[in-house]
Design a protein that fits this description.
With 180 residues, the protein is an alpha+beta fold. Helices cover 27% and strands 28% of the residues. The chain contains six helices and seven strands, in the order αβααββββαββαα. A five-stranded mixed beta barrel has the order 1-5-2-6-7. Strands 3-4 form a two-stranded antiparallel sheet. α2 runs parallel beside α6. The protein is globular and about 40 Å long.
Length: 180
């Protein structure tokens, strides 16, 4: 998210679905927001608030999709793929529409929301007998930018997380997101 193009918001991809029973739909996260300090920044304005946001997430997996690196970007792209393909990430279950909107606002305009069935995982990464209907951000950008290599969260955390936190902590605090 380093250029104006990356920060442009595709209005059609960020419309909220109708809430079920007054609760916003969950979102399957598979990229940079799987790093709890960054999700805490987006939701509260501070990377120190991981204890407040962790209860909103659960380890999860989607099938029939694959995650790839994007040329010259720190974030991945998810695309519909072979049925045996899968992506591990987290299911984010917002308590409020505002929380969902904050996550939606973070995501680049090169993505669109699509419904997906998410399988919840136990603490060891094994599937539980529970699935949840959620949304996933699928890549709509130039397919030539999607690389053959898989994107890796630990590599992002090691090389880029704190730079993202430095950038976004100030930005989200300026927007009045602090400590909510």
């Amino acid at each position: 998210m380093t250029t104006q193009e990356d920060q442009a918001v595709d209005e059609a991809s960020h419309s909220l679905p109708e809430p079920v029973e007054g609760k916003p739909r969950p979102i399957f996260l598979y990229g940079t927001l799987c790093a709890m300090p960054l999700l805490a920044v987006v939701l509260t304005g501070s990377s120190l608030n991981t204890d407040a946001v962790a209860p909103l997430t659960q380890p999860a997996r989607v099938h029939g999709h694959a995650r790839f690196s994007v040329r010259d970007r720190d974030y991945p792209a998810a695309i519909a793929h072979e049925p045996e393909s899968s992506i591990d990430g987290v299911l984010f279950t917002p308590e409020t529409v505002e929380q969902r909107e904050r996550v939606e606002g973070y995501i680049s305009g090169s993505f669109t929301r699509s419904p997906v069935m998410v399988t919840l995982l136990d603490g060891n990464g094994n599937p539980r007998d529970e699935t949840v209907d959620a949304d996933i951000s699928l890549w709509t950008g130039d397919r030539d930018q999607v690389l053959d290599s898989s994107w890796d969260l630990p590599t992002f955390v090691l090389n880029n997380l704190w730079a993202y936190i430095d950038i976004f902590e100030g930005e989200y605090q300026d927007m009045g997101c602090g400590n909510s």
